[in-house]
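To fix ideas, we reproduce below one chain and its tokenised fold.
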Amino acid sequence: MLDAQVMDIYGANPAPATNVIAFPQKPSGTDNQRWRLVASPVQGYYFVQSLLNGFVLDILGANTAARDADHRVSAENRWYREPALAPGSQRRGSYFLESKLNGFVIDIRGANTAPATQLIAFPKKPTGIDNQVWKFIPRAARPTTA
């Protein structure tokens, strides 16, 4: 199983078309590692929106070939959250993020465990999927002030 990493906007760069990488979760929980699912007008699909800049996860140039995921806006940036179920698996509560554009999923390139490995859109694999499944971790409740 891969070491736990999160989707991270490279260098916390707020510009459009910045690469999205896999990177260890920072204890400070910076916004370049925080995302929210926003319901799209297409039932069952979501936009994956960055808290850093409000942009959504997208496939570069709306290309239908297996290639890099990109962090920018386009017409086809909707994602389906498909449960990654396996009997007796540690993957309970994990999901594939599948593109409406081409059916590919967000994948850590080459199942590389090194920090800053680029994320790509790639066909869903039947086995060896640890680099293609993601968990959604709720934000910790913020302390209230009196």
